[in-house]
Amino acid sequence: MRSKSKKPIAVTVKKLLTYAVLILTLLVSIMPLIWMWQAALVPSNKLNVDPFAIPTSLTLDNIKRAWTTGKMNVYMINSILVAIPRVLGVLLLSSLAGYAFGKLKFKGRDKIFSFMMFGMMIPIQAMVIPLYYNLQQMGLINTRLAMVIPYFGLSMPFAVFMMRAFFRDLPDALIESATIDGCNEFTTFLYIMAPLIKPALSALLVFEFMWSWNDMFLPMLVVYNDTSRTLPLGLMFFFGKYTADHSLIAVGVTICTLPIVIVYTLFQKNFIEGVTAGAVKG
Amino acid sequence: MKKRFTTIAALGLAAMVSLTGCMNSTVQKNAEESNKSEEAGQENSQGSSGSEGEGTYTDIILWDGMTDGDGNVLMQELADGFAAEHGIKVERVVMKMEDLRTTIKAAINSGEGPDVFSYEIGAGYLGVLAKSGLAYDLTDYAKDNGWYDLFMDNALSSCTFDEKLYGVGNELEALGVFYNKSTFEKYDLKEPETYEEFEEICKTLKEKGETPIMVDDLDQWPGYHYESLWTNAFAGCDTMNDILALKAEFNQESTAEGLDHLYEIVTNGWTIDSPNAMAHDDARKMFMSGKVAMYPTGTWEVSTFGSKEEGLGDDCGFFFLPAPEGRETSGVFGLGGSFVVNAKSDKTFTAIKFIEYMFNQENVQKWYEASYMPATTNADIDSYEISSLFMDWADSALNSPKQGNNLDVLMPTKVNEATGNYIQELLAGKKTGMECMEDKQSALEAETADGNYEAIEK
Amino acid sequence: MTVKRRRAIGKWCKAMLFVAPALICYIVFAIIPIINTIELSFYKWDGASPIMEYVGLANYKEIFANPIFWKALSHNLFWITFTIMIPTIFGIILAVMLSQRFVRFRLLFRVVFYMPAIVSMVAVSVIWNWILNPEFGILNRILKTIGLGVFAADWLGNEKTVMFALLIAGSWVHYGFCMVITLAALSGVDASYMEVAKLEGANPVQTFVYVTMPLLKNTFTLLALNSLIGSFKVFEIVYMMTKGGPYNSSEVISTYMYRTAFTNSEFGLGSAIATVLSVLIAICSAIYMKVSEREVDA
Question: Dihedrals φ, ψ of C38, to 5°?
């Protein structure tokens, strides 16, 4: 209180500085994206001359072209069809395991947990060659499943880590009272625990959706058919096809980025809550 | 309790170990299959080449690298045409050559591969597939069906390893310099006949405030082509042939001189400030929007640069990089790639017929009209409708007394990797032409010793 | 005893029902491939040939003798150092600023700051390739307009600037994550600590140093560990923007591994690089965790 009344100028300067930094960072964060999105609407002959000029006319032709002849519609559907099962599967498996690691007491729990955490340190590049052959043996090459199933294993360390941290912080009393009410482990999990971990699930959902949506390395190797390509793969292919056209590339980038930005904005409140409760305290 | 845990852990470990056998067994299984299919393949090829050579047409899968404009349309037309003619399906998968190269071996090994696909020629590329038994032996079929007359000599010789034919060169490409005709007319410039004239043009354009020539090398592979162009212009194609035949070495005065002249373009300010920072796609855009007057690259760009919507249309011209006064100019030629049949496919009959179909009299015209020059002898150019730019390069090609070589398609991957690096170093002024050529020679010697390169006799 | 024991076993089995699905997937898709990779690293294999030749430790010898490997490793170390410094610290500063009482539109800032982190690397590389382009790129133009033309550079084409240029793009992606995590930690900081500090007459700097900082220490440890592991793994941004060039000046271990295995078809050698990379990450993480634990104890 005292310091506030004493140094009003210092406080104002501090406020101004804070806002200056925040607003500058805001611009740096968003301008490249906004500029890319607007470039999608600029006629290609204008954009090819100078991609940074201020647009004088706008058109939807680029988007139409990219969407149909550039097959962005196919890529988009594939991305969705890959993301949904992948996210659901990871959420289910990790919340089950997270509950056991966080709330149940059993022999070897911590050892198994550390064994799972080991996976977080291993780069995907270190697994990709054998992984390819494993997927091939399962007959999954060139299918959307090839971009889903491996992640039930590969995404597990982070997902389990996060869910465990969250479950651990839930009070034990909840389980005890549930047990008294005649619940077994599964019904406790289903009716008592699961509803409480919504924030953690949203956070994990955003992370996993984001990774799935943007995933490139493994898909690049296991899928080469145009009908199964997801957006990032499609986008890379699309660049090869329309290298001479800045606008179409901007459209491709827009189609790839906007949906994920929307998903994030929708879930951001729960996302932050989930991160707060989960990752940090772990 | 502790004991129990250990037991379970041991069981788990045992299960894991047994599962880890997967990898080796996959490869071994594939190996057995490859042997089997090789035998089967030989029977098959004998069968189809003999009198009872009628097989049945089946659905096939084709992988090709024609992602762009006219080439893409052409390949789709060929695939659809063949499918319609025989009432089958040709499933076409288009991907960038780089991705195709990354996936093809695993795909063939795992039985997921295409029946017929395009691939780079050269010992380091197709040669590797041939050696590993992944490419189908076409020798007998080719002999019995007149392929040696239909295709140009080098289209087949460059796909031949250990005297067996493993593929067919698809189309002839050349490296040269594209130029903007209106810029040239504006300053009253003509296509250069000698390297000195070429330098004059650069000087004049520079004085008039234009950017004379684009040299871009962020992507590294454009560097391969600059090297082929400048070494061929200065050393001449005979010397280059000797080097490829391992009768001479890369590190000699004339080749180094060529590279030093390439670097002079940078030091004289005839190109953009920083070639190593310029991406190829952006470089193309700059040329097509008229911001640079000349662009040294390959004729695969003819259809794009010559197109009226995207490119410069009739405003685009082409010449071979001329040799210095008193030396002989020869174009730099190479095959764009080859078509190869998968040795593990059980549809080799249809696959081979498809290759044949693509180069029949009627379809060869389609190649030309899409601005490609198929490596066959059955073309009747005069009757085709072809763009002025394509005419220009075809003219240059026909008038070129000798044909130089595009080096990168003939070199093993590791030599190309070295090239990618030292050309960037050259353009940054970190290495001299001679140092670059010494790098190349030692990389080539190492690869030759490892059996990845064999002398090419012309 | 037996009843107790049986009950314990029952409990173990029930717990395993929860854990097993995740654990099995993890073993099949992560652990087994790693073991296979290690196995493959003792062979010479071109990815095509049916013959895999056992070569013992030759692949490892070749890696350690190759100057490009050491160059790539030094670039990884560069990336680690600066990723821990720039985006991590900047993210923490932003979070601290954002959590001040008087800041309005907190939600907007928070949402937007994280946006670069959710965009595909393919898109990021397109955006930054255009921004950094020496001919028409906006960065050089801005520098020239504000009179700092001397700093305009051929960012991605120059061995001296390429790592910094990549780092700028990498930081743009990463600071949002650091901010979100820190923000989460700060919201966990009990507001009463702050009040007490204020009542005790501490100025804002003192409050920050004596109250906020220690509370942030764990967060910083977490973020730094994350950056450490992430920096060893860095691949997409380098692969998409420079492919390791010019002349290996931006090569990192994972691009080197990718090129060796998939471009040059030396799968055994590539697997050996991957193995070395994994071991490096494991060692560094272990050391880091030991050190930070000791600090926390002290």
Answer: -60, -45
